[in-house]
Amino acid sequence: MAPERDLDAARARFLRGGRSTLAPEEVRAEVLASWERSGAAAVAGAPAPFVGHHDAGPLLAAADAVLGAFALENPDAGCAVGLVGEDGTLRLRHDTATAPAELLDAAWWVPGHRHDERAVGTTAAALARHTRRSALVEGAEHLHPGLRVLRDAAAPVTLGAHRAAVVVVTHASARGGTPLALARTLAAAVVGHEEAERHRRVLAVHDAAADLRADGVPWVLAAAGDDLWVGRGAQALAPPDQQALHDLLTASVLLDETEAARHLDLPSGLCAEVRVQEVRGGDAEVLGAVLGGWPVEAHVAAGRTTTAAREARRRQGSHVAPTARRDFAAELRGGPSAEASEEARLRANQELFSPFVRARRDATATLAHRRHLLLVGETGVGKRTLARERFAHLFPRGTSTTVDCAALGDGHDVPLDDPAADVHLVLLDGVHTLTPRSARRLDEALRPLTVLPGRVVVVGCLDSASVDAGRPYGLLLRHFHETVRVPALRHRSDELAEIARSVLRSTTGARSLRLSHQVVRVLEGYSWPGNIAELEDVLRYVVARKPVGVVQPPDLPAFCFTSAPRLTMLETAQADAIIHALYETRGNRYKAAAMLGIARSSLYRKIDAFGISYIA
Predict the structure, then answer these.
(1) Domain boundary among 289, 315, 341
(2) In whole angstroms, how far apart are CA 198 and each of 207, 225, 396?
(3) Among 221, 268, 420, 554, which residue's beta carbon has the most beta carbons within 10 A?
(4) Cα Rg for the chain, rounded, in angstroms?
(5) Using 50, 70 and 90 to split pLDDT, how confident is the model at 150?
(6) Structural domain of 470
(7) What CATH number is attached to the domain comprising 594?
(8) Both 93 and 27 in a single domain?
(9) By three-state DSSP, how is residue 135 classified?
């Protein structure tokens, strides 16, 4: 490798006259090729752009565990370790105690920032991505001025459909050590960790299923991640019945409706009682779930008759045993009907005060059944983020393609191909921006994909201000099965503090910056017409002016202190529900909060915000 001074001179000549000014082998071939691919922003020293965070599924989780443990166990290593995604975005970073953290912050080597060749030029991760092998870049080989004080090594790592690079970064003067070997070792450890975790999950779920079979349960299904096992007894059922049990297992886990036995009418006409149980690890982590089921006749013969089984027999007309006389006073005494009514009212109140919870639940249920979904909401509410996060949660090994409908010119090809993965997400961003011609071309591209049974899930993102089926995107509506409305940020005041802290963490990386309680109150009082996108802009404004410490109200932009407009229809409904609950509880706010299904602090805040007077 050429000395640093010679590399500096070669870099200067390259910037003036290109490859022809360099002598053969003066610069490594892969580095020179990267210099030629690099964009003008890298030469100018522009900061790495912030593009946000997208969960990389099991790869990110495994890397976080392995790299975090390394940084904790090797405080004197003098390096930082991180994971750079296939798109060049830094996904996570862990510093050892002696890492050059300030230099990394100054070089924008912070999670959420893109470090591809167009943005910052040559890096070890970029070389690893292009060559598909490990790479080392010395300080003077970097094209970006801010990176020339660093030395980085990268090793590619692949888990299923997810690709990334494990990166080790030290100061350029740190000639000791073997960062390239360390990067390879950590990359192998990431793969090994995920394989061990998957084996642990599978073994735990298999043991739970074996326990059910040992108890004589005839139908057993088990699920761990994307893996599904069907017991021998369940395999004897008709395929539609097996699918019904599989759908129930998936829906019960997603909607957190496990443990309770329930009645199920199978497509073949069989009547069954089933129970779904979560399988948890020692740290209460959900590893999977198992379903046990019985035909009602077998259940009764075994002496395990329950209310659900007796009701099933009655519904089938099998009045073998006498039926009990209906007790019309049970509801007045708080019997089962009253409990069901109370539970339904509590669920309705929770959905009223947390509309995003319902949107997230409905989106999850739709994607779990691999049905096509249309997300409707104001600009900046996080429709894309919701779709990607839920899809990655449901299908960790799935792949995705994002189509920017605004960028689909009339003469451009639609970037959709037959996916190789078992399940693939096609995310249509900004469908309301389609022109008639681009809408027709997109419809033609979607048609062969949407007929693939369960392999492709299409999610469209539509601005609520542009809802009009007569517009060009109306041609695509036939592809969607469900519509979910994503609420605006002003309707999520109870969650706003946590959302703001999450955005702040992603923006600051490892830096210490906190929001004061007064700032949280100011943020909750603002109407956020730009939704989460506007919140991100505000917090980036704050971070640029206050890199560390506690954020106080004077650090916020002036427009954050403008008063909110009059109550919206949703806020009016919330106020009515609060007043009704306070009247029913004779002003007891503790009982009212429990009745509404919200925290007392949320109730107090809404009483003040809505100007509700004391009710005795």
Answers:
(1) 315
(2) 14, 9, 12
(3) 221
(4) 29
(5) very high
(6) 355-487
(7) 1.10.10
(8) yes
(9) strand
CB 228 within 8 A of CB 221: yes
49 shares its domain with 72: yes
Contact 136, 3 (CB under 8 A): no
Q: Are 144 and 56 contained in the same domain?
A: yes
CB contact at 8 A, 505 and 92: no
The verdict on 495 and 481 lying in the same domain is no
Q: By the 8 A CB rule, do 299 and 264 touch? A: no
Q: Are residues 98 and 12 in the same domain?
A: yes
User: In angstroms, rounded to a whole number, what is the distance separating the alpha carbons of residues 112 and 115?
Assistant: 9
- Could you tell me if 101 and 510 are in contact, meaning their C-beta atoms sit under 8 angstroms apart? yes
Q: How far is residue 313's CA from residue 327's CA, in Å, rounded to a whole number?
A: 20
- Residue 92 Cα distances to 69, 283, 350, 542, angstroms: 13, 23, 34, 22
Among candidate residues 287, 208, 291, 187, the one with its CA nearest the CA of residue 242? 291
State residue 269 phi and psi, 5-degree precision: 105, -10
Return the beta strands (E) in 195-303 as ranges. Answer: 219-224, 227-230, 262-265, 271-280, 286-295
Q: Are strands 286-295 and 219-224 parallel, antiparallel or unpaired?
A: antiparallel
Q: Where are the beta strands (DSSP E) in 448-557?
A: 456-463, 482-485, 513-515, 549-551
Longest Cα–Cα distance of the chain, Å, equals 99
C-alpha–C-alpha distance, residues 395 and 439, integer Å = 28
Indicate whether 575 and 553 sit together in one domain: no
Question: Can you tell me the distance from the alpha carbon of 441 to that of 453, in angstroms, rounded to the nearest whole number?
Answer: 22
Residues contacting 51, CB < 8 A, separation 6+: 89, 112, 113, 114
CB 273 within 8 A of CB 312: yes
Q: Coil, helix or strand for 547?
A: coil
pLDDT > 90? residue 188: yes
Give the total number of structural domains in the chain.
Answer: 5
Gap between the Cα atoms of 560 and 558, Å rounded: 5
Give the SS3 label for residue 596.
Answer: helix
**Rounded CA gap, 362 and 352, in Å?**
15
Residue in the structure block whose two tokens are 């790869």: 59
Q: 323-363 pLDDT, tens per residue?
A: 333 343 444 444 444 555 566 566 666 666 678 888 898 89
Q: How far apart are CA 496 and CA 499, in angstroms?
A: 5
Does some domain include residue 94?
A: yes
Same domain, 183 and 61: yes
- Give yes or no for a contact between 82 and 93, defined as CB atoms under 8 angstroms apart: yes
